[in-house]
Amino acid sequence: KSAALHLPKEKHLNIALAIGSSEPRKQWGTENFIRLVELLTNTLRPNIVLVGGDEDAEMAVNICEHFENPRWIKQLINHPILEAAAVTKFCQVCIGNDTGILNVAAAAGTHAFGIFCGSRPLNPDPLIIPIEAGETKKGCFQNTITPKMIVEQLIAAGFTK
Fold first, then answer.
1. What's the confidence (pLDDT) of residue 125?
2. Residue 29: which region, alpha, beta or left (left: phi > 0; alpha: psi -120 to 50)?
3. CA-based, 20 to 30 A from 148: which of 11, 116, 117, 130?
4. Does domain 2-156 sit in CATH 3.40.50.2000?
């Protein structure tokens, strides 16, 4: 019940964005998440919940400030893992870096879309739709996954306005 307090009140699709990462190479980055939120807003008009640890607080603030702190974006930063898990369970979708909360969301029954920009899925998981990067000349993967690729996967999975 308390998890629902972290969700925006509007009756829309609720999407959790797992913005944290355990390693820099697995971090998709602030600008990519901003571009994703812009595209999601234009196509699906969802509520967004930013989920991460203490080290992700600055990223969450930057994302919110980019959109002038709208009420349809909530921050769930540095909360206990069980609380974060409960919030992701109330969301219909979780999109995130290759990180623990993405796996927790999938295990809780939330449709999970994994951004694998610095790693490959070790064991394919039927509960997580992987979005994988293609290698560039410099070996930098972060920008080979685009927001458009993610939204196309969401629409292919049946998520619409």
1. 79
2. left
3. 11
4. yes
